[in-house]
Amino acid sequence: MPWRRTHDPYGVYVSEIMLQQTQVKTVIPYWERWMRELPTIDAAAAAAPEKIHKLWEGLGYYSRVRNLQQAAQIIQRDHDGVFPDTFDEILALPGIGRYTAGAICSIAFNQPAPILDGNVIRVLTRIFGIAEDPKEKRTNAKLWELAAALVTRADQRSQSCSALNQALMELGALVCTPRQPQCTRCPAKTLCTADQEGRTGELPKLEKRPAASARRFMAFVVECEGRWLVRQRPASTVNAHLWEFPNREVTGQTRGAPAVARDELGFSPGKLEPLGQVKHSITRYRITLEAFIITVKTRPAGLAGSWKSAAELRPLAFTSAHKKLASLAGRRILADR
Q1: Whole-number Å distance between alpha carbons of 143 and 89
Q2: Residue 181 CA from chain centroid, whole number
Q3: CA 45 → CA 19, 48, 70, 336, distances in Å?
Q4: Where are the alpha helices (DSSP H) in 61-207?
Q5: For residue 290, what is the enclosing H or E element?
Q6: Can you tell me the distance from the alpha carbon of 247 to that of 322, in angstroms, rounded to the nearest whole number?
Q7: How do the pLDDT tens digits run along the chain, 337 residues long?
Q8: Is 16 a known active-site residue?
Q9: Which member of 16, 57, 244, 290 is catalytic?
């Protein structure tokens, strides 16, 4: 992982924010591109909102990138552009919790700060045979105490706190995995209570996730003389500030696309051409997005949104599903010409 080859606190910080709710293999190209485009705190602080959203496009949970920029601006203002090196100062930055603050202190500054992410939780519950739900308050506090004891001991022995915490994370990510852990090659095998007692598959004991809910949307790619109608999501909504095509949720409804298009757009389209279907997930929702192309000769009056050419669409940050629709629409229109 490229961020493991640096002790630059800014680079470590960007990686930790990206890794919240996102898998390592997904984050790697995003981190590399971000660090090329915005290699310093002052570059992140000064970047246009459109640029930071475009760099984040596809990672989801976009409040993270807005918090990242706000934190960079606070560092510029209150810390003379130098990343703070104390736990409390880092914790005070927007979007940073106890784990992220500890990770930055440990990895970037080699401080004896404990970390406790999902990987470390799995390693500790198995090694110490902790059968209670790690999300339960008392159990979670116990795990933090164990993590703190380990890194404190490393510090007392003049060992690398950074290396210890990174090793715990990598052990959980690569060896002590949720399913089919590779216990035979685990360097902590002789210390592991779960392995000795045959309980590796039982730990950690996590509550079952709530069942996923299905949701259905219709989207309308309206094209007029080579320009497409798009809208920017309001600040107070999910995926705030990102762009999308006009759409409407139709979960549980049986109305056809012409009626839904009329309600969403305010006019009755003469013809709807099926564009395709996109399936994606947001938290516990499994979403199906059915898309249609509508071609009009003149722009209907009163339509909310902006008309953009293909060149103007490219730099905009779209939600993941609507980015796929833009790609589908582009190929379709080019093919028709």
Answers
A1: 24
A2: 25
A3: 20, 9, 7, 43
A4: 63-78, 87-91, 98-109, 118-127, 137-156, 161-174, 193-196
A5: strand 285-295
A6: 10
A7: 899 898 999 999 999 999 998 888 999 999 999 999 999 999 999 999 999 999 999 999 999 999 999 999 999 999 999 999 999 999 999 999 999 999 999 999 999 999 999 999 999 999 999 999 999 999 999 999 999 999 999 999 999 999 999 999 999 999 999 999 999 999 999 999 999 999 999 999 988 878 889 999 999 999 999 899 999 999 888 889 999 999 999 999 999 999 999 999 999 998 999 999 999 888 889 999 999 999 999 998 888 999 999 889 989 999 989 999 988 887 665 454 4
A8: yes
A9: 16
Residue 20 and residue 23: Cα distance in Å, rounded?
8
CA distance 131 to 164: 24
Domains of the chain: 1-111 (1.10.340.30), 116-148+156-207 (1.10.1670.10), 213-336 (3.90.79.10)
The angle, 0 to 180 degrees and rounded to 10, between the axes of the packed helices 137-156 and 118-127 is: 90
CB 90 within 8 A of CB 84: yes
Kindly report the pTM of this predicted structure. 0.87
Give the β-pairing of 306-308 and 227-232. antiparallel
